[in-house]
Amino acid sequence: MADSEKSPAPSTKNRSKSKDGELRVIGVPRRRVDARAKVTGQTRFADDIAFPRMAYCKLLRSPHAHARIRKIGTTRARSHPGVYLVLTGKDVPIEYGILPVSQDEQALCVDHVRHVGDPVAAVIAREELTAFEALDLIDVEYEVLAPICDPEEALANPEPRIHSYGEEGNIHKRVALAFGDVEQGFAEADEVFEDVFFYQGNTHLPIEQHAAVAVKDPDGKLTIWSSTQTPHYLHRALAKVLEMPPAHIRVIATPNGGGFGGKSDPFQHEIVIAKAALLLDRPVKICLTREEVFYCHRGRHPVLMKFKTGVKKDGTIIGMHLQTLIDGGAYGSYGVASTFYTGALQTTTYHVPRYRFEGCRTFTNKPPCGPKRGHGTVQPRFGQEVQLDKIAEKLAIDPAELRLRIVESSDTVTANFLRLGTVNLAECIRRVVKRSGWNEKFRKLPEGRGVGLACSAYLTGAGLPIYWNKMPHSGVQLKLDRGGGVTVFCGSSEIGQGSDDVLASIVAEVLGLDTFDIRIYTGDTDLGPVDLGSYSSRVTLMAGNAAIQAAERAKDLLVTAVAERLTVPKERLRFADGHVFDSAAPEKGVTFAEAVSLAEARFGTIGTVGSYTPPESPAHYKGGGVGPSPTYSYSAAVVEVGVNPLTGWTTIPTIWIAHDIGRALNPELARGQVVGSVYMGLGEALMEEQQFRRLPKKLSSAFVHKFPSMLEYKSPTTLDMPDVVVDLIEEPDPRGPFGAKEVGQGPLLPIMPAVANAVYDAVGVRIDEVPITPEKIIKGLAEKKAGRLPRFGPSHFPQIDWPEALRVPPPWEGGDGNAVNHPPRHGKPASQKEKVLTP
Amino acid sequence: MITVPVESRKSAHIRLTLNAEPVEVSFAPYKTLLEVLREDLGHTGTKHGCELGECGACAVLVDDKPVLSCLLLALECDGRNVLTVEGLASNGTLHPLQEAFANLGAAQCGYCTPAILVTAKALLDENPAPTRDQIRQALSGNLCRCTGYLQIFEAVEEAVVKIAEQRKTSTHG
Fold first, then answer.
1. What pLDDT, in 10s, does the model give residues A350-383?
2. What is the CATH number for A549?
3. Which residues of A touch B131 (CB under 8 A)?
4. Rounded to whole angstroms, how far apart are CA atoms A144 and A149?
5. In which region does residue A639 sit, left (phi positive, over 0), alpha (psi from -120 to 50) or beta (all else)?
6. ipTM computed for the complex
7. Interface size between A and B, measured as CB pairs under 8 A
8. Is B85 close to A40, i.e. CB distance below 8 A?
9. How many CB atoms lie under 10 A from the CB of residue A185?
10. 0.90 exceeded by the pTM?
């Protein structure tokens, strides 16, 4: 082994200098535990797995955006040489979905296709090409229905209905929440601002296409390997659709080749190959094409939003009213949660004493939207931060100064009853202002150059599980063996973010080891206790806290045994550099392996568990389940732009960002998460968009994805990426493991509004829409030249029949987190009581 | 008559040098180098993200030049020299690029990493002291969705320093 495999750690010779509370692993920039596998090409992704006798699956997908299936003929496909099996909807008819309230998907559509790409049949064959060829031999008779193309069409056309559930017509979900009387706030305000923004949808575009392999085990049970971020939820969906006891299903989440939220739903292809493997009694693999990945989607919801905000002359916010109209695509997915998320976090950055939120998600005949990095909070954050820039200008207050005046403080309970943890947003703002030279640049750079500032907050893990229960959100088991080995078992899934390294570093820190000494088994429902999955930036805090508990429990056992052997008081024992020793006499000690042996002799086999359940939220009202988190991260960013006034082309030389992370467990990886978030935000700000179009009549008039390919779905390359100056603000939050808060999603959020604000500083044009393309800038400049409002963006927010708002008085009006009224419920959810089979 | 699916007809046959080792392989003639590497030669280190030449994840070196293996028929590789990520390390020692990528956070999910590593190697073999802009240019065909590229640039620059140091040591030694 090359010595560089070990992460650089303080030398053993320093043991005598070891101080109480000094961290040896946490906070040290380290090679991540899985780095060697990644740079040698040995990380085993789902499509790298192969078995003898393995068959291949291909899905036949709908060419129509909206249609009834009249008939499916599979005879020709079945008799094609090399074809083992053809499945259709009736073979796997049970509905499922990620949320209990929207069990609206089928692994293969039975009688209704809802978007181009909806799967209707599957071929399983000896070779992949054979399966592909046989798709052409399946005869499907469709009755084409009129597609619903956008939310306004959905509001105007209750028929044809995309789903038979939901509120009414093609409205999936409407929510209305009122925290205090915003109208009174507007009456008391010195200025009231009303702005409409549009945030276009975009997709995750992980470089790895979704892939999975299912095997009927020799004992008759099922194992599936899949590039999923949420093995636990896939486990549940498989048990439901296959009508099998979960105990007979093993889900193994392979390391994901990028996820970003796009691999968080149970997918049709996973269920189909599991069914096929059971029927055929042979391994079955599927790997989606890039085009199919675009159809799986679950990406950023397109959101039209209206912000009405009342402020005092000094910038104090008096009231805010937000309305969102959300394009959900063809299925529920996480959409009900996404709807609430478009209104949940507006109160977490700045003090908002009265807040009203109304959100409406419609179904449309497009690939389903879902959670993408920043889930639902990204779109309204864009509107809020751009509007704040407009407010600052009108009030003649520097935008940074305005924000510093109104930032929310630590440990606050907000108007909508979110309990904040540490809030170091002010420090983030001060840091980027200083580092960027903001005061020398803002409104002072020559025409065509500008700077913009924006801020944000994000969850460190959803406070409630997807299906409500009182069980832990994350569990960790440790096995210590007498050779000194420590093995960590956890259901968490490694999607590239470094969750395995988090577990290794925490356990290594507590037990005085090097991360290389730790073995990690994650993402396997047979081996590890449940972790809910890699979503909502929850893993570092939740699995991390569970790991601390398990490691501390193991440490207690070792301490007891070693203290007896050395006749040293327990409190004096320290764990460092692979040794357990007396802090008063560091030469007196045993190796870690000896310590385990002593403990094993004293207590028997050494294994411990840890678990984590988030604290109860003070938000008791219906809908209050979305938004609570153990703590929130904060970010501030300054973006500098150059805008060519002739072409509208925008270049970005530098971005400064400060992120309130609590503590960086591995600063190298933390910085990578910040820069990666900035990159993805920049893609959304400037170029990434899901666009659809109707084909010309002679080609079928179908409503199709405009460019389901990587070539035409533009994303930033090495040539587009600016320098990014990252500041990690480290003030440990006691709620996080070693004080850590999230870093994987939050730093994306300020980028889009900061770019918009910088473009305004550069050329005096407001682009109230994402992405900010050259075409839109030129149109805005033309408006400016013509003496009209120098703006490009949506002109109106449609009339929506909102339900009566649930009224929840904020804490400062004596509210206790409960609603004071009981509006009637609309519609009914597509939920069924879940039956969990026991073996 | 027995009808054999087209993919099973391994009628094509080539010899090539793969990671400094002579190999022979039989495969269905329509297969790309990417497919033959992954499916017929068991070298799964090379990845795919689109199989249309758009993402760069399948890059390998053919006769020392970066090539998108999803666009190259394996039949065209007879007698040629192919290097994949599996051939970067030698005698159990990681290539300085691999060391730097591992140490500096240049691989997050690691899916685009094999292709970026071999592409960077081709750059450094030709230009041992590239500027940041030259690195950007050389890697502009490789999409990465995780890192935002900066730590990749830094790792390549770190490898440049390490390789120069190694050369110095070997000429002096």
1. 999 999 999 999 999 999 999 999 999 999 999 9
2. 3.30.365.10
3. none
4. 15
5. beta
6. 0.97
7. 201
8. yes
9. 24
10. yes
